[in-house]
Task: structure prediction
Amino acid sequence: MEKRTVIIDCDPGIDDSLALMLALVSPEIRIAGITVVSGNVPADQGGKNALKILKFMGQLDIPVCQGAMVPLKREYISAKDTHGEDGLGESGIPEITEASVHPGAVDFILDTLKREEKVSIIAIGPLTNLALALKKEPLAFQNLDMLVSMGGCFKSYGNCSPVAEYNYWCDPDSAEYVYQNLGRKIHMVGLDVTREIVLSPNILEYMKRLDQKECQKRGAFVEAITRFYFDYHWKYENLIGCVVNDPLAVAYFLNPQLLSGFDAYVAVETGGISIGQSVVDAMGFWKRQPNAHVLTQVDSLGFWSFFLSRLYGMEEERIRQVLKDLMI
Ligand code: BDR
Ligand code: CA
Result:
């Protein structure tokens, strides 16, 4: 099987870490590199966190490159309230000394696009690195295979304002730039679908109870980084569990049947009270060519069965049979 080359642009980030873990165990892809942007935490901290995940997964050979420290125009606002001071739920994972973060994420993205015939990008943070790369060398994006972006919302309410999702709200100018200038459809995995992906206490408990030692180790790691996220969701959203957005973008790339949606023209609001809102012209009022494939439906049992079977190297059907009772 020919592997698809992928760059993961991220801001780790608790749910980014789960997304990275899923990507790292997936045989269909070759991760050319992980590029980091300021979002949940500043990009320098995010880079260190990416290394922590790579070390845990035994794949420190994958390059990590630091990108933009601030959004294109807007003042930078982190999401440390959601992800903890360190971005990994204040889990106390030690710093990595065996590898370091490289500078130059934007050039890394451009070089990879120019070197390889087909490259896909899974962007699970604000779109600053991509906007900078696209502004610098738009032609390099001719080699882009697919861009999946976790961000935005269609009918769902926002998570930063009544109408805006964090990644687009953090850097609305970059998001708008990429939507208007990429020249191909962006696969928008927004809150309409990611809100359905709740890591519940039941699922977490199951992850720790699977018999093999490696499973228990991964379950304990996930528990350590998500505890803070659980507390946040209980305090602010009255939810016991946590919404994990980013792994859904990776799962969609690997297994598109898990989600469905429609093509539409999307614009991102860059000012005023609805700053960061992704305005989806579902009814075609503006008569513009669709620049997005907006995902609106998701099979959550399918997602969790896929995610756990990948993470644990177990047969998906066996996991599904257990989860279907645990997820009621
Ligand atoms: C997005 O914002 C971040 O907090 C998460 O990592 C995710 O990428 C959800 O709105
Ligand atoms: Ca993220």
About this structure: The mean pLDDT is 96. The chain is about 40% helix and 20% strand.
